[in-house]
Design brief:
mainly beta
Length: 128
């Protein structure tokens, strides 16, 4: 059974950094595309970033709002994916989720409906 657990969220001042982790059990994340998404109060869930499986080419993609500030990467342990977030802004405040398609999608896609296994989320708050 697939389980994803996010961690690393917290309260940070504007301009600060956080690194989120997505740890998997029941699967080897290296074989799956992994997406990061976020949802702010009263807003729809939106895509943040994704990374293709290591079996393909590990390509990445980012929402325009985070390009140049966020970086997605894989851990050497093959069960963790990270989201490094730099130069955080108040509008980045949200609950952040990682997700995979448990049926084996291995291409990076930013459409949330393509993912069926989600973590519980980790809160990121950017405020002075």
């Amino acid at each position: 059974q697939v389980q994803l657990v996010e961690s690393g969220g917290g309260l940070v001042q504007p301009g600060g950094s956080l690194r989120l982790s997505c740890a998997a059990s029941g699967v080897t994340l290296d074989y799956y595309a992994v997406g990061w998404f976020r949802q702010a109060p009263g807003k729809a869930r939106e895509a943040v970033s994704c990374i293709s499986s290591s079996n393909i080419d590990g390509t990445t993609d980012y929402a325009d709002s985070v390009k140049g500030r966020f970086t997605i990467s894989r851990g050497n342990d093959k069960i963790t994916v990270y989201l490094q977030m730099n130069n955080l802004k108040p509008e980045d405040t949200a609950v952040y989720y990682c997700a995979i398609d448990s049926l084996g999608n291995n291409k990076c896609r930013l459409q949330s409906w393509l993912y069926d296994s989600w973590g519980q989320g980790t809160q990121v708050t950017v405020s002075s």
